[in-house]
Amino acid sequence: MEMGLEDLGDLAINAIISKLDAKDTVAVSCVSKKLRVSASEESLWLNHCSQDLGLSSPIDPLGKPAPSFKETYQLWRESFGMYPWPLVKRVKRCWDRLKNWLSANFPEAGATLRKGATEVEIEALENILKVKLPLPTRLLYRFCDGQELTEEDVGGTALGSSLGIIGGYCFYDHLVNVCLLPLRQVILETKEITDQLGFSTTSKYVIVAASSTYIGKFFFLNCTTGQLYVGTRNLLSAGEMIPCVPNALISPMHDLNTGQQQDAMLLWLEEHVRRLQNGIIKLRKEGMIRSINLFPEEPPLCSTAVTNGVQYPLLYPGGEEFVYESCTFLSSSQGSIEGGFTFVPGRLADPKGSAFEVEVGRFPLQCPDYIF
């Protein structure tokens, strides 16, 4: 005697449907009234919302409460129906991880994030700048329209804001802190800088991130290839830029029929989040000012030299960490640095023993795969 799915008990049917993804759950609900009831169980859609969207409560894309998890899922699908769903889930996970890290570690920077841009706002940018943003970048802006830095934020330091979510570094009088630009500022900065660089009116570059300090550092997204570039110190004089992400990782950006798109902007932001979560880069505090410091602090991107039992840069057990930052201009993409420090017990004016040298072993300098 053959038995159909509907001949099973409710518990058995629910157990089977719970193994399906959201798309197949909807398909099953179209078979009969009984299966529609089973496929509408709130617990099923709670699971789909949790797995696909990272939601633990029924919240729509605008952040408003929804009547049920099933309706929540439907609202999200409708809101992002023009994009491949796997890409939507991936971009949302990226932003969720970054926002969670900021909330736990750097809430003052998290407070600068703007709500997502609308399709109308994105299309307005494309029309003004005569470009077509890659799908991953469009989605990144749909979830968050960059950062809003107020006058108070910019006044946080003598040279500008320290709240850039990409972060930066400081050596000598060179202070860099990079923030993600909102669409309206993307338009303004792109027009101004591309005019200075003499780009043609058909240029497909847009500026998506820049330093919020008085030291200029600009990140250009090529909307045709999907690569992200950063301007070097020769940007204004020679238009020199270098890629920020390995070219081999970039996939087709404008194909709506696949969920495998990944432009440099998405890859770049995902790698940044990974480094934050893994403690490779951390917050630094100078006086009362906190910022994300892009100098890596964990191997393999960070080297530590140990000589005669003295571990650089610790001066003595239990003491505060000593950080030495420096830079040099290289004419090639590779080089190395080495040297040493002279330590004096006590103070220079009142030494308590003989000075001794600590060697800093040679370590390589080379252009990394990802540049921030």
From TrEMBL:
Residues 6-46 form the F-box domain. InterPro entries: ApaG_sf, F-box-like_dom_sf, F-box_dom, Knr4/Smi1-like_sf. It comes from the Eukaryota. This is F-box domain-containing protein.
